[in-house]
Design brief:
homodimer; about 350 residues; alpha/beta; five-stranded mixed beta sheet; 14 helices
Chain lengths: ~350, ~350
């Protein structure tokens, strides 16, 4: 039985998209699980009672499994993370996260300001010992199974040791969320040979070879969409947050643009093409858990659709049920014990 | 009147693809221009006389405009650049480049080993004063006009000054090859704000603001395919060679994969889709001039098709006709004079 708190006010299309996503998750998740909609309760109630009421009432026990948690403060896109933490304790972000630290919730999901969510999650949950910053693990669709890429933007100048930490965090993510056994870790670089790459990547390669991980060597940009390198399938793609963020945002732009171009072509039934291309839209996958914090905080794309929100809630539930946070703590302790 | 030397033996599909590309270029270029096919002459002659003879003979003055230059040494994919330079002076790469240093040719094009071509071009042509390494400028198709991205893999750990040099090199490239006036330079980063990015990018942003260039600020991964950032169209995308190489190889994998996926879907006429997707295949654009060397050396993708080879020859011709190498020298001198 898990209680998932959702930031009802966060995201470009909130609260419509967040509430619709919550209802979609409620109908899909097992009946033992509940959702806490955090935000301005009168706004949330208005949306629930109006457009969505019919859908809502058709679900079994929906009203029992949906709680509204009042959070009157509103975060704006220009609010700095420090302002959110110190000045807006009653925002949906802070209230939602605090539910977890006080034992009233098991996970938090938001499509609001990523910077504020990272900072607030780190301050409220604290980091596992040995970590200096959390990392963002993002699921990327590939021609094979999805992979988790990290870091996707939380850490820009990374040391070789930090890249190894990402490999550990990603391994647990792949085990617990993607349900892979002995996940294969690839290091993003500019050639398959160990001597290819920038200084940090070359040193990380040597450290990863010695670490207690299933390291399968470097992978190149062309391997990411394939979901494999020359040695076989990959589950975890390790890179610094600068490269990861550039690549993720580039990838997110591909399917929408291809679709727009093909829609303009005469004689193409783009409705048949759309599902084929949409499966390659990372923003539709939804839900990047902030890895390294001692709690569950799932970051969504600002432009999240109801489907993306629903998917993020599923990710949060898997993180809770698999006890991912505990596993990460154990994995990091193993790493420091092994001296890598 | 330009003489373009083509490495007939370089590339995964050589000499078939290189010779076919040369013939295609001969028929497309003005009759004043000639091509020098560099490689093992008996092999080249056999291919010309056999399968391609019919196509060849139908062209006006083709035989007068096509010269075969003997180069008996063969470069293997495992040859280190130093081995090529010192140990294989009669390879097609070394002979083709030397034609230019001895005044017998105006440009060199190869789909062979990129590392060997970079090293050999730098040794034989020398760099413009003030540069420590050359950069690879690659054309990327976008939803608008193509952009030039650099560096695409020659320089992995870049200083802020080197990123500014890439901006200068790319500006001349955009003027001379893409025929843009006052090219707009974007700096690849992880947010539009100047304070977003890794350490080198943040400092480069400040230097670029003061440089005598049309700097339009940061661009994000999602802006690349659009060919614009929030401030408008972009002509030059500046990044270090690690990020650039990862992004280029990722981009190159997109169109082929999308096509493969859509081909498998029932009810989709993929032949109608193919041209729409193929326009977003950077490997079909063909031809990345090595920027910063005092000569014209155009690098092609190893897997270049005849069309890509033909396109690269066109790029080489534009570089010659526009006197790009001289312009780069002048632009770099302006830069050092302005104290940036």
């Amino acid at each position: 039985m898990a209680r998932i708190a959702l930031d009802a006010m966060g995201g470009d299309h909130a609260p419509q998209a967040t509430i619709a996503g919550a209802l979609s998750a409620l109908s899909e998740l097992g009946q033992a699980h509940s959702i806490q909609l955090v935000g301005r309760s009168e706004v949330i109630r208005k949306h629930l009672d109006a457009g969505l009421a019919g859908e809502f009432d058709s679900m079994v026990n929906a009203r029992e499994r949906l709680e509204i948690i009042e959070a009157p403060d509103v975060i704006t896109m220009t609010d700095k993370p420090a302002v959110v933490i110190r000045g807006k304790p009653k925002s949906s972000m802070m209230v939602g996260l605090t539910l977890q630290t006080t034992g009233k919730s098991d996970a938090f999901v938001s499509a609001g300001s990523t910077g504020a969510q990272m900072a607030a999650s780190t301050v409220l949950f604290k980091l596992h010992p040995g970590l200096t910053r959390p990392a963002i693990g993002t699921i990327l669709p590939t021609a094979r199974k999805p992979v988790v890429m990290l870091d996707a933007g939380a850490n820009v100048d990374c040391s070789p040791d930090e890249l190894v930490q990402f490999a550990r965090l990603g391994t647990v993510y792949a085990e617990d969320i993607l349900v892979r056994s002995n996940p294969a870790v690839g290091l993003l670089s500019i050639g398959e040979e160990p001597e290819k790459g920038n200084a940090a990547v070359k040193e990380a390669h040597q450290l990863l070879k010695k670490a207690d991980l299933n390291f399968v060597g470097n992978m190149e940009g062309r391997d990411v969409l394939q979901g494999e390198n020359r040695r076989g399938p990959v589950d975890v793609v390790v890179c610094d947050g600068f490269v990861g963020n550039v690549l993720l945002k580039f990838y997110e732009s591909v399917a929408p643009l291809m679709l727009a171009i093909l829609k303009k072509k005469a004689g193409i039934d783009w409705r048949k093409i759309e599902p084929g291309l949409r499966q390659f839209d990372p923003s539709e996958v939804g839900g990047a858990p902030l890895l390294g914090v001692r709690g569950v905080s799932v970051i969504c794309h600002g432009a999240s659709s109801p489907r993306a929100i629903k998917n993020a809630i599923v990710v949060a539930l898997r993180a809770v049920e698999s006890q991912m946070t505990d596993h990460i703590g154990k994995r990091l302790m193993q790493g420091s014990g092994a001296g890598t």
